[in-house]
């Protein structure tokens, strides 16, 4: 994931536990919105133990009970704590955080769906730019705040009149413009 709850709370200067459950839920939601907006999974190929590009294979079994991905060829080049992006599977495409990693078994913090080997699954390492932590925190802060960050003007003289900044999706444009440097043109 881009940032942990602790990092989000530090960046937003939140010291109470009131919003912990909401922040936990919003981390994955806002992360998905960043991925969608940028048209990027922030994934890259990684080198395997033979110093060759690792792209995946068809020898992976997914087990929901242990949240594990097993490689019968024992060729996983990943480490505990890394994020990965899976594509080409029947049921398990998406982003995962590794809570444990060996050359033969990856354990994820997210739920998996049982799937037998056979599909040509691609697994890439996800590298989140550090600057995305602040953007993620800003998006979460916007969602949990009663303030309207997108307000550009307000006039209270007999009648109330408020102007708002343009929005991109459900966020003010000012929050999203920091993501423009990460946007990828084209289709996924």
Question: Care to give the gist of this entry?
Answer:
By secondary structure, the chain is α+β, with helices and mostly antiparallel strands. The chain has helices spanning 5-12, 20-38, 132-144, 173-176, and strands spanning 43-44, 46-47, 53-54, 56-57, 60-63, 68-71, 83-87, 94-101, 105-108, 121-126, 151-156, 160-164, 167-168, 171-172.
Describe the protein in words.
The chain is α+β, with helices and mostly antiparallel strands and 188 residues long. The chain has 2 domains: 5-40 and 130-182, no CATH class; 43-126, Elongation Factor Tu (Ef-tu), domain 3 (Beta Barrel). 23% of the residues lie in helices and 29% in strands. It has 4 helices and 14 strands. It has helices at 5-12, 20-38, 132-144, 173-176; strands spanning 43-44, 46-47, 53-54, 56-57, 60-63, 68-71, 83-87, 94-101, 105-108, 121-126, 151-156, 160-164, 167-168, 171-172. Strands 1, 4, 5, 6, 7, 8, 9 and 10 form an 8-stranded antiparallel beta sheet that branches. A two-stranded antiparallel sheet has the order 2-3. A two-stranded antiparallel ribbon has the order 11-12. The longest helix is centred in the N-terminal third of the chain and has 19 residues, at 20-38. The radius of gyration is 20 Å and the shape is globular.
């Amino acid at each position: 994931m881009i940032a942990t709850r602790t990092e989000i709370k530090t960046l937003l200067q939140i010291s109470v536990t009131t919003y912990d459950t909401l922040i936990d839920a919003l981390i994955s939601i806002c992360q998905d919105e960043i991925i969608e907006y940028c048209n990027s999974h922030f994934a890259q190929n990684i080198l395997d133990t033979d110093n060759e590009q690792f792209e995946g294979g068809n020898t992976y079994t997914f087990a929901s009970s242990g949240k594990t991905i097993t490689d019968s060829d024992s060729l996983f080049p990943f480490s505990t704590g890394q994020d990965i992006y899976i594509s080409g599977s029947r049921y398990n495409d998406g982003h995962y955080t590794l809570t444990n990693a060996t050359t033969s078994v990856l354990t994820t913090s997210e739920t998996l769906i049982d799937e037998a080997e056979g599909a040509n699954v691609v697994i890439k390492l996800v590298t989140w730019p550090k600057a995305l932590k602040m953007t993620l925190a800003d998006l979460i802060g916007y969602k949990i705040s009663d303030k309207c960050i997108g307000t550009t003007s307000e006039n209270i003289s007999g009648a109330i009149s408020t102007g708002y900044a343009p929005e991109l999706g459900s966020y003010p444009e000012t929050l999203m413009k920091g993501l423009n440097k990460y946007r990828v043109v084209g289709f996924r």
